[in-house]
Amino acid sequence: MAKEFVLPDIGEGLVDAEIVQWHVAIGDEVVEDQVLVEVETAKAVVELPSPYAGTILRLAATEGETVAVGDALVVIGDPGEVLADTPTGPEAESETGVQEVVAPPDADDRTVKAMPVVRRLAREHGIDLADVTPSGPGGRITREDVEAMIDSAPAPAAATSVTSDSADQDQRVPMARVRRAVAAHMAKSWSEIPHVTVFDRVNGTRLLEARRELSSQLDRKIPLEAFVVKAVVPVLKEFPEFNATLDGDDLILRAACNVAVAVDTPDGLIVPVVHHADQRSIVELADRIEHMATAVRDRTATPDDLAGGTFTVSNIGALGGGFGTPIIPHGTTAILSIGRAVVRPIVEADGSIGTAPLFPLSLSYDHRVIDGGLGQRFFARLMEELEQA
User: How far apart are alpha carbons 227 and 159 in whole angstroms?
Assistant: First the structure.
């Protein structure tokens, strides 16, 4: 019997995904857990395995098409099974051969029949399904019907420019999927969280020496973020409000220190998570951070790799940055930004003047949870840990 596999919710806040590549074709025999398709979410490219064994009877979307969570991806049946060509009743079989309850259409005419992906295509192009002539079985509107309507629609009038030089014309460029997701998350955080950001510089002499020594021992460059995460962990244990989630009137103090580390990628800022950072050595932290940076740049990170962060570290110094005002990821209470170290004059403990590499630090925290005194005590302890690295 034919079974329909729909796009599952494979990540926090996922609403849709784009079909990147099908690994099967109609007529193929598949086993349970065999990879069917690669889909791109706002953060990663994910392989989806088959929940059933059987024969591929229908692929419900094409490569490059966006599918909403809950929409059909593929229909899998028994060996030798074929799809029904005609409807059998008011809840008529769709083109997939699977019973489909006709959902209320966008128009007032509630007898319109169309798959969810066809309805979405019509919405995106401002097509009223009541105006489309159906060609599918049982009076169903197909994707081809909507595309024909789109093709027959008059082209919009071209925008005019005050000059004949095309270089002076504005361009409308769609935002990439990752950029749209980042924009939505940042807007949500900024609108809901009252931010406080504090700044200071920390002496990075010992930290940089420790990094050079370990890099020399291992004959590889150890990422600075590994040392920063190692310094942050004991301070999070001491000040659990910074490793927490505000849920209504309750503050959830997280047991694990899952430190997210921001990574700059060609597709936008991605923040993979080092789970249980408090249980990892400095080398294990370095390995994990390097692995995750490669994974997000290659778009091979899994949804689990990108979920569950409890505190965030952003090394804007890697791009030459100094101080900043980092935005707190929604669901957490704080974020630390570290800038590029610059050698500056300092006053030593004995009163003499010297020089040292000073890292700019910027700490943003949720003022609903953390007041100024607590914030400054956390910041001071963190600077101690960084200077003693």
Answer: 54
| Radius of gyration in angstroms for the set of CA atoms belonging to the chain, rounded to a whole number | 27
Mean pLDDT highest for which of 26-40, 45-59, 131-145, 278-292? 278-292
Please tell me the CATH superfamily of domain 177-387, with its number.
Chloramphenicol acetyltransferase-like domain (3.30.559.10)
Nearest-CA neighbor of 274 among 247, 231, 328, 310?
Answer: 310
Structure tokens at 315: 């090394």
Tokens of 235: 């301070």
Q: May I ask the CATH architecture of the domain 3-152?
A: Beta Barrel (2.40)
Amino acid letter at 276? Answer: H
pTM above 0.70, yes or no: no
Q: Over 294-325, what HEC string results?
A: HHHHHCCCCHHHHCCCCEEEEEHHHHCCCCCC
- As a whole number of angstroms, the distance between CA 377 and CA 140 comes to 66
Higher pLDDT among residues 247 and 15, named by residue: 247
Domains 3-152 and 177-387 share a fold: no
DSSP states of 344-381 as a string? EEEE-TTS-EEEEEEEEEEEEEETTT--HHHHHHHHHH
Q: What CA–CA distance (Å, rounded) separates 37 from 50?
A: 9
Task: Write the DSSP symbol of residue 236.
Answer: H
Residue 286's nearest CA partner among 336, 214, 341, 359 is 214
DSSP 70-88: TSEEEEEE-TT-----S--
Q: Using an 8 Å Cβ cutoff, are 216 and 369 in contact?
A: no
Strand partners, 224: none
* Every domain of the chain and the residues it spans: 3-152, 177-387
Contact at 8 Å (CB) between 224 and 215? no
One-letter amino acid identity for 72?
Answer: A
The pLDDT > 90 percentage for the chain reads 49
Q: Which are the catalytic amino acids? A: 367
Question: Considering only CA atoms, which of 26, 8, 29 is closest in space to residue 17?
Answer: 8
